[in-house]
Structure prediction request, 131 residues.
Amino acid sequence: MRMSRVLLAGAAVAAAGIATSAFTASNTVEDSVAGYDEATVSGATTEQVDYVLNADKSIVDEIRFELVGDYSLDVANEGLVAWLTVKNEGTNIFAPVQCDFETFAVTHPVSCDIPGTEIDDFDSIALTVSE
Prediction:
C-alpha cells in the first residue's frame, strides 16, 4: 500500500511539472485593428438607354445610358466606375464591360462599347455603377 502511494505521489508531481511547462510557453499575437461602420448605398437612375447600331441595324456596337445627375466629382475623386452586363436567358454572353463616363450636360452620359454584338444574341442588359 505504501508503494502505491509513493507511485501516485510521483505521478502527480510529474503531471504538475508537465502542466506547468505547458502554461509557461508563450504565444505572440500581433496588434490588430477591428471596426465596424455603415454606409448608405443609393442607386443610380437612368433616364434613357440608346443602342448604337451598325449600318444594317443587326449589330449593336455601343449602348449609351443617360444617368440623372452630375457624377463628375465622383468619377474624378472617388473612382466611380460603370459596368455593363449583357445576358441571354440569364447567362452572361461575355464578361462585364467597363463603360466610360462622358462630360456632364443636363444628364450624365455613360457609353459602353460592345462592338460586333448581334441584336439576337441578348435579351437583357444591366448597368452597375459603383466606387
Summary: Residues 46-130 form a domain with the Immunoglobulin-like fold (CATH 2.60.40).
